[in-house]
Amino acid sequence: MKRHAAREKALQILFQLDMNDNDPKQAVEDHPETLELDEFLMTLVQGVATHKVTIDQTIAGHLDNWSIDRIASVEKTILRIAVYEIKYEDDIPVGVSINEAVELANVYGDEKSGKFVNGVLSSIIA
């Protein structure tokens, strides 16, 4: 599985985990299209689930006149994946993480999601 596809699957799985408090590994296994478990996919899902509190604190600290509770679940999940990559995955260039997050936001969010995600992530890396 390519990394972009793994990020899309991670978005779907983490979004589901945000709605239902399941075990991350079980959530991945429950997705029939992930029968061949991808290492990068598992790293993203487990990493975001493990570091969710710290990641959310990082995001919340870079929101202007906004609270993390007001962010739509899709954008919140995309931000969590990107922040996880930026903070914990040294082999992924920051620009790649941001570009992938913006692309996911443009596909799965509304017309303003990409700009919002880009703005928050740019603030975090500044």
TrEMBL record:
Domain NusB/RsmB/TIM44, chain residue ranges per copy: 4-125
Keywords per UniProt: RNA-binding, Transcription, Transcription antitermination, Transcription regulation
Taxonomy, superkingdom: Bacteria
Keyword Transcription: yes
Protein family: Belongs to the NusB family.
Function: Involved in transcription antitermination. Required for transcription of ribosomal RNA (rRNA) genes. Binds specifically to the boxA antiterminator sequence of the ribosomal RNA (rrn) operons.
Protein name per its UniProtKB record: Transcription antitermination protein NusB
Annotated organism of origin: Virgibacillus siamensis
Phylogenetic lineage: Bacteria, Bacillati, Bacillota, Bacilli, Bacillales
